[in-house]
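Here is one chain, start to finish.
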Amino acid sequence: MKRLHFSALFPAIRRRCPVPWLAVVLTAFLLCACAGTFTSCTLNEDDKTIEISLPTLDRIAQRGKLLVGTTGDYRPLSYREADGTYWGFGIELAQTIAERMGVGIEFVGTSWPTLTNDVQATPQTFDLAIGGITITDARRETMLMSEGYLANGKTILCRAEDTGRFRSLADIDKPEVRVMVNPGGLNEKFARENLTHATISVHPKNEEIPEKVALGEADVMITEITEAPWYVQNDERLAAPLLNAPFTNGEIGILMRKGQEDLLLYVNVIISKMKDDGSLRRLHEKYGLVYAYDN
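Its structure:
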């Protein structure tokens, strides 16, 4: 029997199989699920039997639950209530992944400053991280990121009475403008790289910054088009005047450590399947998010 490591599966299937490679991989996963274990799967190809090793999926199956890292401070993607319960778009996506794997789920707290270290920690603290995690080349160099499941871009929150005051990045980049960001993430990075004249302050809890802007303790919050609408809809004191003209354009994905290519492929299969069957669009609509994956 020929053993093929999962990281080598992509070119092998794409090169030899006339059926779309994603469908072949999905079939392999379904065969594994029916067998009740993720230890290995087999594919018959050109009269050769290929065994695919699935070490990460097997470990999760044996544990009986998927461990998911999330910051819990990013409405409406990932938020932790005072009683410890989590809700949000990303939380429901993680629950869907666990359900389709046939395992339970446990959420593990992380933070934006420690996210990279937590993903790469030894011993491993969780299997994957989800929330408002933007796909970047830097992250892909040292970790694994899924395909995108949500469009994203940098924008601002300000007080409603200041809607006409902030119409561009230049309007914000002035010494008298007080900009507040959460620490350690791409919001702080964006502010420091692009707002060299504004007065920048860092507040440790992302979810508290909109209230501080509303109360006048800061003029602008650097945030994203996924987060800003929720606060505007739920607090009439706030506005997002540049929501339809974000400073950047990107996607949010699921983050995990290298060496988990089997889990990465499984997650990508689920995301693709949710795009195809309409469930990802329905999840966007539930949370008032813009769906950007029409063909």
